[in-house]
Amino acid sequence: MTALRSKLKGELLGGRRGQASAIGAVFFILILGIVLGYMFNFINQVEELNRAALSTMQTRFERQREALQIALVDYVETGLVDYDPESVEIVYGTKVQDSPLTIEAAVSGGGVSNVTLIDEDFEEDGWEFEVADDLACPSWWDTCVFDGVYEDVGDWGDVSGYAVGAESGVYIISKNRFKESAKGYYLLEFSGGNFLSVNLSLDYLFEPLGFSARGKVTWILSVSINRSDDMTAVWGPVEVLSVVDDGSVSSLHGSWEPSSEIPADVFEAGKQYYLVLYVEVQYNLRKRPGSAIYYYAKAFFDNVHLEATVSGGGGGGGFAAWAGAAFSFDVGSGVPAVLMAEVEVDSVPVEISLYYEDPDVAGVWERVQSFTVRTTDVVLLNASLVGEASEASRFMLVASAGTGFTLTVYGFWVNCSFVAENFNVTVLNEGGETVKVVSVWVVNSTNVWRSDLNVVLAPLEEETVRVDYGLVRGSRYLVRIVTEKGNIFDYYLAIP
Beta-carbon neighbour count of residue 305 at 10 Å? Predict the structure, then answer.
């Protein structure tokens, strides 16, 4: 009995141990599954984070590779504006008919009259050079300049306002001596005639601005009159001023006219001539101990006036017959850019000049350009309007000749520039990636405007987009292009 009880007890205890082992194994598997699940989930999250980081880096890299340029914003359109027929004022001659406007030239009676050939008609681009801003310098780091200038000289006695001249700048550290010369000349054109006399006057200014060297610089200002076809001199050159600048010379200015008359018989009616203003500089400079060669100065011509006297007889003088009229234009918001005239004369040669009225001083007229007509066919004249001429609303056409003639004006227009009702933006893809443009913005101080776009640009492709937004003169704008990837490209625009 005792043996049986012991056997049963052993069997019961062994069964319990096996059951405990089985339960422990189950719990171990569950815990291991949970741990593995957390591990796999962590690995998956890390992979997703890596993918997100790589995607962000890729997007950022692609954004950085976008390179757009707003190459042009075009808001200007042009149009011809005709004169007001009611505004026509005959200033010389007798009107024969209104359409087309025909004027019979008025022929002067006896006696003599004065004709202005040149009256300080300067432009910035009138210089020609024998040696200009490529004046030989000893080495690449040195500076040697001789060039034309057109600038406001202020008030220097007889010289005032804008004048034309030449400047010289020399800075040399690589050589102990500089010996060179330079020459330039400025051209003013006029027409010849059967003159009785010709008179010239002008003002001059020499302005030293810096001298640190030994030696001297010689400036020579002179004038001549040359034929325009072959540049043969018919008078001069005559010296206006000679200055030897050794560092002790102060500014010089004054009025000048030739000591003897210009021969009137050298001019032919209908031929073109140049009044030539020369500036020559001769350098002979040496270093001072311990310093570079430095020199800077300017010389100007101003108030240049060339006048001729002509006979008042009908055909015996240079310009004895005149025909002309003044016209008014309503250009609205436009800016005059080119003055155009379609004319015909029945006798040649005839000189035709175009004028504009000073916007600030009524009745004061400035010449825009002159033309010599040597044909009886209809001709079209074009004169560019710059500066104050672009603000004028009245213009004048004057024709003159040595004999009587008839002037017919078939058309007289101002070609104006206007701000268009919309504008165009030209976008260039300068990068190596295809770019999609999704919007355009126009921003100023009072308004923000946006429009959607769908423009795809391949590398180096250019496309012009029309923007339906009206710009206003006198305003500033920011034009902005936005791409699909969020890049922004700006263009700043000021409408004069």
Answer: 15
